[in-house]
Amino acid sequence: MDWYFKCPLCKKDRSSDWDNAGKTVECAECKKTRKIPTPADQHDAYVDQHDWPDDMEKEVFRVKGRVCVIDACDSKEMTLDHIKAWNNKGRTSVSNLQPMCKSHNSSKSDTDFSTWLKESKLKLRQ
C-alpha cells in the first residue's frame, strides 16, 4: 500500500510505502531529513486503496468521534465511510473518512455522502 503526503519541509508531494509512515528519511526533493507524516500529522494524506490502515481508523475515530454521523442513530456497529465515494475518486484519508454505522454505510453504498443524505432525507448529527 502506498502513502501519499506532503514533505513537512519543502511541501512537495511525496509518496512512500505505508510501512514507512512515522520513520525518519531524507526527502528526495529538498535533501533534508524529516519524518514521514502519519495520518495524525496530515489529515489530507492518503493511501492508494479503498481499505484504510488501522492507524488511520484510530485517527478518524479520535478526531471525529465513534458515533454514526446520522442524527438519532444509536447503533454501536461502526465502520468508516468515504465522504466522497472511492469509486468517484474519493481518497482514503482522515479528511475524507467519517464514522458511520454499518447499516447506514450499507445503505449509502458507493454514493457520495451529500447526494445520499439528500436522497435519503436523513439528517446529519449536530
TrEMBL record:
Pfam families: HNH (PF01844). It comes from the Bacteria. Residues 56-106 form the HNH nuclease domain. This is HNH nuclease domain-containing protein.
